[in-house]
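Example record

The entry below shows one chain as it appears in the dataset: sequence first, then structure tokens.
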Amino acid sequence: MFLIRSGAIEGFEQLVNQLGHNPASLLAQSGFSSAQLRDPNTYISYTRLADLLDNAALVCGVPLFGLRLAAAQSVLALGEIALSIRQQPTLADALAYSNHHIRLHAYGINVKQVPRRDTLELHLSFDFSNATGLTQLMQLSAGQAFNLVSQMADDTGSALKLHLPQAAAAQSAELPGSYRGHVQYGCEFGGVSFPLSWLARKPQYDEQLLREHFQQRIRLLESIYPDDLQAQVRHLISNLLPSGECSIERVAAGLNLQPRVLQKRLQREHVSFRELLQQTRLEIAQRNLQHGQLSITELALNLGYAEVAVFSRNFKRWTGVSPREWKARHQGDTGQE
């Protein structure tokens, strides 16, 4: 199954409302609901999302709906990975990190780096298609790639291009201001391109973006888990684990607390951060081994382990059996009599 984080269409409902249409109706036609979009890290069907975007473009009469949506988003639409890659030493390292962890954001998208003279092209492709050839999904994805590269390189000059395979006739539609002068139509690929020399640049760090991320997290957690500190901590742990940077400092920041204050509050509830981290890892591991499609190597990566052997050793200590043995015993078991 092809899946993507619901955060990828951040701002969808607001945009559809602005265009004078009913977002709830459009979501329902594609089998979604507003509740599914509340948590940006909920995985939803990638193929149905592609159809949703095409339908929204048709109903709203906006041929560049995908670009309009991308232009209204921050790079946080890509989730935790957008924060982690900005901490890499160079743009080249950031792209390598992104390629290695892309499945934390979506299953079914591929990014290929193609050097061409003094330019690097990032070709986006998908493992599925639909009736339109994924026209709107390509717009959205290319726009998000453009947003990320422009912010990391701190450059919105004409050297950064946004490539779309669709016909040039779309130029007659209203183009978001941030993309004017950058979009090229009728291309052999969808994606972005920029000077090879940018690869040596250090990605720009955006403190405001980090604060915005944590503010969003706090609002979300307070709405989903009011007055339940342990549930809030476990939720943040599950979102931070794939980045490999899950620490009490990061979790405390997500709750707008000092680490020492968080430790004391957890102690009053007779639990430690380490215990919640282990419980969360075990639950995610068991859920994926029983119902998921990730390999054990991919699962270990998603749980923040640099080595599969370390994950396997810990899992056996928790359950008494290896991940492979546990999967063989429980896969397909619904837990019902």
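Notes for this example: The mean pLDDT is 86. Residues 119 and 196 are 5 Å apart (CA to CA).
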